[in-house]
Design a protein that fits this description.
This protein has helices at 66-71, 86-89, 105-113; strands at 29-30, 34-46, 49-54, 59-64, 79-84, 96-103. The protein is an alpha+beta fold. Strands 2-3-4-6-5 form a five-stranded mixed β-barrel. Mean pLDDT is 76; it is low at 13-19.
Length: 148
């Protein structure tokens, strides 16, 4: 009879104090990345491609970079930092970009506090999408429950 294994795969328990905060990355012009800007994801297109609307209202097709594909999940309504592709804008393919990082809602509030993005640009209601307004719902007060 084989010896009984001890231990095995143990579940790691995260301590609340162990949560690490990362350094806030700001948009800037760098020679390596080109012009970086903030944007909100308006649609998920599949294959790690997203439709992103920037501060000027231009909608671009952005692709998540390799390091982000394995670590962070990007969804509709998320605030992201993207880098425009300058080499493609001169070649005729305007509107393509690479997503560099995704901001958490807490980081987005800090960016509004630092006046990096305008206060109305990113809201948590962007995640709701096309949800109906409460004014559009009509309630019937004369409903008789016994005759249903």
């Amino acid at each position: 009879m084989p010896k009984k294994k001890t231990g095995g795969a143990r579940r790691q328990i995260r301590n609340a104090a162990d949560v690490r905060t990362r350094e806030l990355v700001f948009a800037e012009d760098t020679p390596e990345l080109g012009k970086t800007d903030y944007g909100v994801v308006t649609a998920v297109l599949g294959d790690k491609r997203f439709s992103v609307k920037d501060l000027q209202g231009v909608v671009r097709v952005a692709k998540a970079r390799g390091a982000m594909r394995r670590g962070q999940r990007v969804g509709r309504g998320d605030l992201v930092l993207f880098s425009a592709r300058p080499f493609e804008e001169t070649g005729g393919r305007v509107g393509h970009a690479d997503i560099l990082t995704r901001y958490t809602p807490e980081e987005a509030r800090k960016l509004v506090g630092y006046e990096e993005i305008p206060p109305g640009f990113y809201t948590t209601t962007d995640c709701a999408g096309d949800a109906p307004e409460l004014d559009d719902v009509i309630f019937d007060d004369n409903l008789d429950i016994d005759n249903i």
